[in-house]
Amino acid sequence: MACSPWLSMFRRRPDLIIAALELGPGVRLADLGAGEGYFTLRFAKAIGPSGVVIAVEPDHPRAALVAERGAQAFLAIQVVEPAPDDPLLPGAVDIIFLRNVYHHLPDQPTYFRRAGRYLRNGGRVAIVENRPIRWLTRIFGHATDPATIKAEMAAAGYELVAEHDFLRLQSFFVFRPTGNLPA
User: In the prediction, which pLDDT does 148 show?
Assistant: First the structure.
């Protein structure tokens, strides 16, 4: 069933996000703020059995649900409950992905300087975040201005490598470290 044009602005567009990230076999991806696994499960299917998706979720019941859903689908998913200021990944990854989580993180530049140690050479950070749209922000309150994300990621030692505009209410940026991340 097709979405009405008005409701289509709320679509998550996982197919386009996965295509934009160029996921393939063997990729190691960390899904920060995995929630109940909406993207986690889709990433695991896109990556296949030779890759790994690490669902990083601080809420224990949600983390357990992601683990259960992954096991039921026979997908390569590891679940991690992070520290407030560190994702505590069990190893290096190619992509750190977060959707509507950026605004929840404490001191984002410091967080991503720390998180950068988990990126493999050539690794990327993909951030999908609600834009502060007047009525939407008043109702839900969870948004970050795209200019703020770009400035904070630059302060953390990252450069913008891609900006996608197919999400109507969200910004979608991909960053990579510029070299040695500042301490």
Answer: 96
160 three-class SS: strand
E strands, the chain, are 28-32, 52-56, 77-80, 93-99, 119-130, 158-164, 170-177
Q: What is the rounded CA–CA span in Å between residue 145 and residue 97?
A: 18
Question: Do residue 168 and residue 109 come from a single domain?
Answer: yes
Mean pLDDT of the region 40-63: 94
d(CA 122, CA 95): 9
Task: Quote the tokens at residue 53.
Answer: 């998706």
Domain ends where: 67, 91, 115? Answer: 91
Confidence (pTM)? 0.89
CA dist., res. 87 & res. 80, Å (int): 8
Q: Show Cβ contacts of residue 177 under 8 Å, excluding neighbours closer than 6 positions.
A: 116, 119, 123, 157, 158, 159
What is the amino acid identity at position 144? T
Residue 149: domain span? 104-177
Contact 3, 11 (CB under 8 A): yes
71-81 residue pLDDT tens = 888 788 999 99
- Provide the domain count of the chain: 2
Q: With bands split at pLDDT 50, 70 and 90, how would you rate the model's confidence at 131?
A: confident
